[in-house]
Design brief:
This protein is mainly α and 113 residues long. 66% of the residues lie in helices and 0% in strands. Helix 3 runs antiparallel to helix 4. The longest helix has 26 residues.
Length: 113
């Protein structure tokens, strides 16, 4: 049994399907963040309407830094789509989307709000 598990974990696999997944997810990430960026540029931020923080200790950045964070996230999504520094783009895009989602329970559209 152990030999079978070792053989499965040691087998080389083709990662081309992950590239396809990255190309499909990148535009979704960019569109998701673009909506927040468009509102932020117009002067509306998550704190301006109903706002329920997910955790009281969760850090909030100033308005200008929030806009910059969204721009960086969209840039990372573009890098994901084009394959330019794709691994770094994946990590940055994930971090920006996760940070943005956990800013307010209303971003997750759940029943806690």
């Amino acid at each position: 049994m152990i030999a079978r598990i070792d053989e499965l974990l040691g087998r080389r696999i083709d990662l081309r399907m992950l590239v396809l997944l990255r190309h499909l997810v990148a535009p979704l990430v960019a569109l998701h963040l673009w909506r927040f960026l468009d509102d932020a540029v117009d002067g509306h931020q998550y704190r301006d309407t109903f706002y329920e923080p997910f955790w009281s200790w969760y850090p909030e950045v100033p308005r200008v830094a929030y806009v910059a964070l969204l721009v960086v996230g969209i840039g990372a999504a573009v890098c994901m789509a084009l394959g330019i520094r794709a691994r770094a783009g994946n990590v940055v895009a994930f971090a920006v989307v996760a940070y943005n989602l956990f800013l307010s329970t209303t971003h997750l559209h759940n029943n806690r709000a």
